[in-house]
UniProtKB/TrEMBL annotation:
This is Sodium channel epithelial 1 gamma subunit. Its main location: membrane. GO terms for cellular component: apical plasma membrane; sodium channel complex. Keywords: Cell membrane, Disulfide bond, Ion channel, Ion transport, Membrane, Sodium, Sodium channel, Sodium transport, Transmembrane, Transmembrane helix, Transport. It is a multi-pass membrane protein. Belongs to the amiloride-sensitive sodium channel (TC 1.A.6) family. SCNN1G subfamily.
Length: 349
């Protein structure tokens, strides 16, 4: 009532095997209806002759899968068959992997776990050594030698119940006799023996609060955030914008590509034209003298030709190409300004 569950557990301490059990109490677990309760792994123990109050707080978590973490969404990518027909969890994968290894190694399945298809549970009549095989295999499993811990992965989505436990003495010394007498009646009929308080445990489970907490992972950086941060840093430190970056890419990549392509095209075109013109050219004669420039052998240096060097020019051959004629040296003669020669010039004659 009031959003809580209250039960009184009868543990029957007298039926315990002293060689197998050395403690008295009970173990409980709070789980979702789609989850399998592995009470041996994550159960919460409660005491006898004690009132245990457990407050629950529900948390739903979701982690990112690859490439952010090595978790699985539904478990379909894990090469281990789910024998429990419940939602995937790491404990289900480990127990299923061990049960499959038990069938492959020992020939039978362990009775505390679901039965794989085509297998049968172990018994001493048909499998007399199955217990020895089971302990040897369980030792390898604990030492992570079966490979189950490497194959199985955590689930990306999981529910978690956070429990807060408080204890109190129960029943109190004042109400002990009355409480035990009331509990000794079962639906109006008295039980054969009087109950002892060490056989009973009072349990109260309630919601600590009605708020549901949801924890989700989001990527700190993606393509949009990366480009946004990159553009912001360029604008802050280099006063660059998207247009500036595009222009830089155009100059250094696109224009360079077109320049290289154009040069190769021109080179290929020039090679093709030379190849087409090569058969039409006449081969040069073997006895033809080599021609240089205007065939002016005197003009082999950087000095200008003089009158003497011009007179020493060789006579051109008949088949020689036309060349620039020498200048008319008569034009170099200067006419005297006076018709009569001067007396000092006549003395030298």
């Amino acid at each position: 009532t009031g959003g809580r569950l209250q039960v009184v557990l009868y543990v029957e301490e007298a039926d315990y095997n002293p060689f197998l059990v050395t403690s008295t109490g009970a173990k409980i677990i709070v789980h979702d209806q789609h989850e399998y309760p592995f009470i041996e792994d994550i159960g919460t123990e409660i005491e006898t002759a004690t009132a245990t109050s457990i407050g629950m707080h529900f948390t739903r978590s979701h982690k990112l899968s690859k490439p952010y973490s090595d978790c699985t969404e539904t478990g379909t990518d894990i090469p281990v068959a789910n024998l429990y027909n419940k939602s995937y969890s790491l404990q289900i994968c480990l127990h299923s992997c061990f049960q499959r290894a038990m069938v492959d190694t020992c020939g039978c399945a362990q009775y505390a776990q679901p039965l794989p298809p085509g297998a049968e549970y172990c018994n001493y009549k048909k499998y007399p050594n199955w217990m020895y095989c089971y302990y040897k295999l369980h030792e390898k499993f604990v030492k992570e030698q079966l490979g189950c811990q490497q194959i199985c992965k955590e689930a990306c989505s999981f529910n978690e119940w956070t429990l807060t436990t408080s204890l109190a003495q129960w029943p109190s010394s004042v109400s002990e006799d009355w409480m035990l007498r009331v509990l000794s009646w079962d639906k109006g009929q008295k039980i054969n023996k009087m109950l002892n308080k060490t056989d009973l445990a009072n349990l109260v489970v309630f919601y600590k609060d009605l708020n549901e907490r949801f924890i989700s992972e989001n990527p700190a950086n993606n393509i949009v955030i990366l480009l946004s941060n990159f553009g912001g840093q360029l604008g802050l430190w280099m006063s660059c914008s998207v247009v500036c970056v595009i222009e830089i890419i155009e100059v250094f990549f696109i224009d360079s590509f077109f320049i290289v392509t154009r040069r190769r095209w021109q080179k290929a075109k020039r090679w093709w034209n030379d190849r087409k013109a090569a058969p039409t050219q006449e081969p040069p004669q073997g006895n033809a003298p080599a021609r240089e420039g205007h065939d002016n052998l005197a003009c082999t240096d950087e000095d200008l030709p003089t009158f003497n060097t011009a007179l020493g020019l060789p006579v051109p051959h008949e088949n020689h190409m036309l060349r620039t004629p020498p200048p008319n040296y008569n034009t170099l003669q200067l006419d005297a300004a006076f018709t009569d020669p001067l007396p000092d010039t006549l003395e030298g004659r």
